[in-house]
Design brief:
homodimer, 454 residues, Aminopeptidase, Glucose Oxidase, domain 1, 2 domains, 13 helices, 23% strand
Amino acid sequence: MKKCIPLLGLMIVLTGLMSRLYAQADSVMAKNISNEIMLHGAAYDNLRVLCKTIGHRLSGSPQQDKAIAWGKALLEQSGADKVWLQPVMVPKWTRGKESLRIKNEGKWISIPMLSLGNSEGTNGKTLSAEIIYFDNMDALKAAPEAAVKGKIVFLNYAFRQDFLKTFDAYSDIAAYRFNGANVAAKKGAVGLIIRSLSTGLKDVPHTGSMRYEDEVQKIPALAIGNSTAAALGDWCKKGKPVAELRSECGMKEMVMAYNVIGELQGTQEGYLVVGGHLDSWDVGEGAQDDGAGCVQSIEVLRTLKKLNIKPKHTIRVVLFANEENGMKGGLAYADSAKAKNERHILALESDEGGYTPRGFSLKMTDADRATIKTWKNIFFPMGVYDFEEEGGGVDIGPLAKQGCRLAGLMPDSQRYFDMHHSQNDVFEDVNKRELHLGAVAMTTFIYMADQYFD
Amino acid sequence: MKKCIPLLGLMIVLTGLMSRLYAQADSVMAKNISNEIMLHGAAYDNLRVLCKTIGHRLSGSPQQDKAIAWGKALLEQSGADKVWLQPVMVPKWTRGKESLRIKNEGKWISIPMLSLGNSEGTNGKTLSAEIIYFDNMDALKAAPEAAVKGKIVFLNYAFRQDFLKTFDAYSDIAAYRFNGANVAAKKGAVGLIIRSLSTGLKDVPHTGSMRYEDEVQKIPALAIGNSTAAALGDWCKKGKPVAELRSECGMKEMVMAYNVIGELQGTQEGYLVVGGHLDSWDVGEGAQDDGAGCVQSIEVLRTLKKLNIKPKHTIRVVLFANEENGMKGGLAYADSAKAKNERHILALESDEGGYTPRGFSLKMTDADRATIKTWKNIFFPMGVYDFEEEGGGVDIGPLAKQGCRLAGLMPDSQRYFDMHHSQNDVFEDVNKRELHLGAVAMTTFIYMADQYFD
């Protein structure tokens, strides 16, 4: 044993030295990645093309098909060893014409509105009914059916500005949009109006996904902007406003779409995924949600290729189909990975906007999270410091069952819900440096994960 | 001694317990501050009034006088125990008319430009001269006088996009604007054109301060936008473009202005300062630079008063005069503090924009910095994590000589130099949540400093 001690000491010193050298090499690589993207990054210009020549691209829309072709061509240009389309059936929902008028104190007023995604319309008729007001979901649940029956429920619950991370406020309010119609319909309501899930000060309606439960009446559901909601709240307190709703919205047949996949082949078995979703809502340009995540993911591949970094494991960029109103792309990717027995080491999604990065949410073992925290000195100069949150992303979520580690880029969230799912989610909202800094963080993260996870 | 050990143990336990209770009480207070500002904050609406009813407010301008009256009234409304104006003589520089035309390949083109602040004009004449191109200051310094004499120097050095913190890039390039004219004039140049100190993609010129050295010819100096600079660079490589400059800019007499000061009186001796600067450049609305810092500082006072927090030390809000082109306000405040023997414990400045806060730069002893780092759990939920940088602020800088600790709010910096000192520094660039979150961080910081420093 005594003889072992000097040897052990030497080994500890050598290990310390090696790990310092490794850390130094990683820092140098992070700086190379950063210089490449901040000086020569293509993500911003790629996003301009997606937003300005294609625009929004809801599942099943003609723009979705154009976006798929754009993504495939761009991955090829960006240096992928292999690019292909993975077929997936997606729901096709269309908006059509829609209008809302409200009569208050004898006067009809046209109200800016957006039907919620997946909502049914009014079957070619005009739906006329009195509006009944509720501060929140509990108040609606507590109301007697007789009071609600035949009326249009107005849920005036506001996005909470006191949450400092806006995604916490989004979690708090999400059920109003996703499930409000079911709660209202069970009480006999004939329609639902919600206050938009938004921090925005402008009177812009924000759409987003809802889903009808089986066996529940499919009543039309829509959102109005924040200041209109405040006004409607006042009207309801003073009188009994009546609404006239016309909407051609409705779910159509399932149609074929594709996940767009490009890969850099590794020398070892195993896969890393980096992705965003290619579909968007049918207003604005889907710039922050989630054109940003798509072009950043492609930028990861372009940068690794440009810097001649040969990954150990195969790195796949996946532009997922149908995140917004069905999650079919994410499910199809995970199903295929399972069927082909492809071992997925880690998946990273960017789907919280292209604002300045601040951290990565993680879903993995504590030991793996601890490994990532040892990288903190590499990320600190990028302003990336937060590895505490539990997370990942909607599209990569289904991979967790296969033991895949999950990570989600967490950008600064303060402005995100000003424009999310609205006409204001346009290219002009995206800042080039912020978008590219996110791509720097993602590329570095994938580089590190490829080195240190197996 | 033996008897002492249990007592010592008890004391350690009690001290630990007390410090945990204190930390808990501080977290509760931080949450109260946060709720007050995020739900009922006035800073954003105050900034709208400053920007939209007064607008930009260069030292010595009529708008400066209006801004002083606005600041005084607002501090009174916000609950200050005492508000007063501290006189200070400031330089009055005026822009007047200015124009730049450049002849390239026989064709005259009008170029968007802004004279640098404090620059002299062309004395009612048209200055016509050939342009001589330099990549950077070293190239200019190395050039023979004969080559430069009688020409207009064009320094095409670009803001470095590879620096991840944009203020590092600003430090790198600052001498081009501040001192470029002196270097050029010493070589016999008759004028200076610089590429704007800006990350902006739009072709907008950005002004900012320069200063003539004594004994050096006061040649006119101006900035052009990034894409014009790129074009002019090309023209200079291919030919010998000629410029015609007319400018009525010039320094006038010194005039009287005021620092606007409001205070919450403490129960103990000693002062804490929180401030921003009230003056701005004469383009845009001085919204981020530094209307934001002014309304945030006033919000600190309003919030402490509203929450009925009685400070130990007297807390002063100072809206400094003349930061942009003379620093006279900061110097006058420090002179007065010294003359009155007012012991200043800490001064905090917000002058890097109203974007999401990320940290505080500090100028103080290592022990004091270590104290502040023990507050990190209080700041982490606000996204404030960086206490590593050396800093403070231009206006509070002179207080350091009196032993005053300095701190500067560090917001996210990615967008700042897109609009800094340009027509794009307007209210619309400011996001309410970001501005208010900065005020939350500042109020909490002042609250903590009042508790833990003496």
